[in-house]
Amino acid sequence: MDIEDGPRDLTVEWAVVGSGVGPLFLAATGRGLVRVEFHAGEGRRERMPGRLAQQLGATVVESATGRLAEPLRQLDRYFAGALRAFDLPLDWSLTTGFNRRVLRELADGVPYGTLVGYGDLARRAGQPEAAQAVGAAMGANPLPVVVPCHRVVESGGGLGGFGGGLETKRRLLALEGVLPEPLF
To answer: How far apart are CA 47 and CA 39, in angstroms?
Structure first.
């Protein structure tokens, strides 16, 4: 479910939770999940609330209940291999224009266990010549895992880049059965 317009409660709830790829920083507004951040160690825990307050013009409070309860439940199921599609309200406030169009196409059109090339995703978003811009949109994705930028790869079969690091991308693709599990 996508929410783009209408009133947004000016309070953002956040929490850091464990996952199959390490600690994740999660934040939600009254509209829905607004931010997922990988590698949420102490430094990110300290920086992200202030950064979100500035970006969204909101009060940011720590809470793993209320708005984050369903995202947490679905992420737990995803990392346990029991969820193949997220059904969460998403707040797209941290992305605009072409990036938002590409990310929405990714979320709606690239299901669990499949891959798409940067150029193909550019074509699907209506700008076939914009493969590099798709890469930039993936790097700016405020909702990784839920909006699955790990499923976007190079046309020649390479993994491409990934804001969470290539090992994280490999682990997510292995979880979805696209790559084999690491041997050790």
So the answer is: 13
Unique residue bearing structure tokens 């209506």: 126
Are 119 and 82 spatial neighbours (Cβ–Cβ below 8 Å)?
no
**Quick one: pLDDT band at residue 179, thresholds 50, 70, 90?**
confident
Given a cut of 80, is residue 69 above it in pLDDT? Answer: yes
Residue 8: is its pLDDT beyond 90?
no
DSSP lists the bridge partners of residue 14 as 27, 62
Task: Output the pTM of the full model.
Answer: 0.91
153 and 159 in contact (C-beta within 8 Å)?
yes
Catalytic residues, by residue number, are 149
Please name the amino acid found at residue 77.
Answer: R
**What tokens appear for 91 in the block?**
């707040």
Residue 1 binned pLDDT confidence (cut-offs 50, 70, 90): very low
Task: Tell how strand 24-28 and strand 11-17 pair up.
Answer: antiparallel
Residue 36, amino acid: V
